[in-house]
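Protein Entry — a single chain follows
Fields — amino acid sequence, structure tokens
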Amino acid sequence: MLPLYVTSGEPAGIGPDICLSLAIRIDERPIVVLADINLLKKRAEVLNQTVEIIEYEGQLESSGQGQLYVEHIPLNTDVVLGELNAENSAYVLEQLRRSADYAMSGKSVGVATAPVQKSIINDAGIHFSGHTEYYQEFAGVERVVMMLATKTLRVALATTHLALRDVPDAITRPRLHQVIDILIHDLKTKFKIEHPHILVCGLNPHAGEDGYLGMEEIEVINPVLENYRAQGINMSLSLPADTLFTPENLKDADAVLAMYHDQGLPVLKSQGFGEAINITLGLPFIRTSVDHGTALSLAGTGRAKSSSLHVAVDLALDLARH
């Protein structure tokens, strides 16, 4: 039985803490954490947790409660709680490399990821935009789509980690076609929604107000959406984002497509922070992630919430069953 791999992320943050919490689970499918075993043992001591850490060497048995399978990746240097160190950037990236390689080569059912600190990886002289872009490049796919989800809301993004001034130029007809094709495909295939209903945010306030507040809706966004609607896809034209997220509008929607990162995600996270997860659509493998950052100040304190990681693991395992 193939395992699900979980990356432990930035070693000075809460990634190791929340990965240790996976030992409370009993799953049919083995879960394997990618981390330095000694780091996890030390973190368990700090947290006063009793966890039996087992070095994973290809065993296919399911883990019992209180046990955690770990594939050992050695740290480059010792970790100080809450203190970033660029010397461990290669350690973090090795977690991502292995998880992607195993998923691409059929050695796992997918990956769930704990948070990383993008800034310290870049400080190490390694260009890194984020997990999503890393897995996209590794898989060699032209486009992926970031989607965050709670139990009641899914929000996909037309653009991801871009400066706000760059967003309008990035929203082109070809890009929107790529994003929407991926969104529709994965809602149908991964989430088993036969006829997805998708709401789409406009870029500008009031969705441009008939061109008074911007022409992107008229010249770019709506022509693309009209094409899908003509094919029978249940998709709105561009809607004002300030009213799209009302319960009445969302009650029958399967997903919302937002034009940029901070248009849709604040609403989603305000509804379900700590319970929301990130899913990368368009990859040839399953990848889910927590919806929060490294929370350096909480590392080793016992106050870090692990609920988002558990939801990410649950969804990855659920998608693997389909």
